Amino acid sequence: MLRKIPGLSVKQSGGRGGVVSIFSRGSESDHNLVIVDGVKVNEIGGYYDFSRLSVNNIEQIEILRGPQAALYGPGAMGSVISIKTKKYSQKNVITFSTAFGIGESPSRGLQSNGNTYFINEEAINISGPISINKNNDYLRFGYSVGFKRIDDNGHMLKNNNHDKANLGAGLSLFTSDDKLKVQASFGKKKNRYRYPTDSSGNTEGTPFLSTQKDRRHITTRSINLEYKILEPLTVGTTYKYWYMHKWVESGYQAWNGLETNSDTNFWEKREGFDYYARHTKDFNTFTIDSLVGYDTITESSDYNTFGGTYYAHDDKINQYYGNINFQLPHEISINPGLRKIHHETHGGYTLPSIFLSKNFLETSTRVRGGFSKGVKYPNTYESYSQTYMLRPERQKSYEFGFDQNMRKDIVVSATYFDTKIYDLITYTSWVPGSQSGAEYKNIQEASSNGLELSTLINLPSNIRTKIWFTHLKTTVDKNGNFGGDANWPDGRDLLRRPRKSGGFTISKSSESYNISLDGSYTGGRWDYQSSNIRLWNKPFWNFDFYAEHDLNSYNLHYNLRPFIKINNLFNDEKQEMLNFESPGRTTLIGIKGDI
């Protein structure tokens, strides 16, 4: 789904379970803020592996591109992906899905030999209302529980498999007049990925390892309470909790060719409260929606590496924020926002934003634009044992665009953006003027600008088509005198960002079946072979096919829909990231339904 969003470049390191990164509008892969039920689920410092996401038990996904820190806080630099899970349904429903399939390996040296491997996945969801007193429905309850598991044997020859289990649950309590709402959610993820590389990430030229794996157990909890004091005023609070326990087993020593025990065992935790008030007032000719709040979060961690390395941290982050939306006459909207952040270790920042739009009803045109800033604090590992205190990475961005309805069946959108990034943090192999060797430094400034185009066309016979295209230009503006390294020479493109990307989707639906064909294009892009060698990674197309058939026409008691899903339809060999061979064609056949 994320590949279909203009401006988002999705890159996966190998097969399912390998790290999936997103570069939004040329920003870094750790500049995406991911929120689930109000809880920030990024690791401390912004890193997020999108292979952990599951669309099971999801009710709504909202995607915002560009810095959004005024509304969402630190980390919202390149994009915000906000997810709401299901909390209840109007009637008791059980939905399920099961699928089995075959993956085809590409043929590449010591990595894979063209054979097939097994894939299977299952999911089940249960949701509905909870009746306490049938004679009094003033208080209403609802629930939702979902579970999904994936088992992928992997396309590499040795030590390559991925398994994932996701459990999510939600509970809602609300009054019939909607004055009181309480929503609670719980999530538990268990991911394990075995990877056949040496300690520097190479997959050829050295023996494959049999022990390396990455395991993560992630827990999220949130409780949101809202109370409408008066018709225009609502107050609320959200308790937010996120905890990750990670084990990494890796240990190939190139100098002696032996596998060693170099396990890493650590945890990270984020916990706090958000207090807010919303007010809406209609003045007949214009409307004002306002939001003010106070957010307090404590981030802590404990790292323990085999061999004696140990470090930990405990930081408190306090934030005050406000956002106002003016709906003015003549279809004009003005939306300013401001957030004041104070980080216990890295100091404070004030982050403004303003977005404006104007609708022209006569021509069905919407013109929009905006300015916003973002900030991302260093992660614990970057900050540990540094010679100098690291500064947060900062970003500011402008954007302008329009949306045009052409008749009733065609919508065209275009957006131009211009972004500047400051104080990028990079691990340096050499520190000018220092004999201490490599460490993390604020060394780089970069800029990006581009054009995002998309069109949605509704054709006769329930055929829908979407086409999108992104043209991106990125430039390293300041390298901090590290010109000898491949990552940041002045005037060169940022790594792994394609200059051109796009795609299409064609779908047809009816009462008995749904069919869709997706094609995505990733243009050529620079990647790195080592710290001082850049290589050009070739462009590629990827095609996916999906079809399902509804068996209701056969007068069954249950709603059953067999389906087939084919990824990499034409079994093309490609590398989304250099040195990480992408899997060949995978075919899943399954059935889903509800009771």
Chain-wise SSE layout:
Layout: E1 8-12, E2 20-24, E3 32-36, E4 39-40, E5 58-65, H1 69-72, E6 79-85, E7 93-104, E8 107-108, E9 112-113, E10 116-130, E11 139-152, E12 162-175, E13 180-194, E14 213-230, E15 233-249, E16 252-253, E17 258-259, E18 264-282, E19 287-305, E20 310-328, E21 332-343, E22 347-360, E23 365-376, H2 380-383, E24 393-406, E25 410-428, E26 439-459, E27 463-478, E28 500-509, E29 513-522, E30 525-530, E31 533-537, E32 540-549, E33 559-567, E34 586-594
Parallel strand pairs: 3-6
Antiparallel strand pairs: 1-2, 3-4, 5-6, 7-10, 7-34, 8-9, 10-11, 11-12, 12-13, 13-14, 14-15, 15-18, 16-17, 18-19, 19-20, 20-21, 21-22, 22-23, 23-24, 24-25, 25-26, 26-27, 27-28, 28-29, 29-32, 30-31, 32-33, 33-34
Written description of the protein model:
The protein is an all-beta fold and 595 residues long. It is 1% helix and 62% strand. It is built from two helices and 34 strands. The chain has a 22-stranded antiparallel beta barrel. A four-stranded mixed β-sheet has the order 4-3-6-5, with no helix packed on it. It is globular. The model has no long low-confidence stretch (mean pLDDT 87).
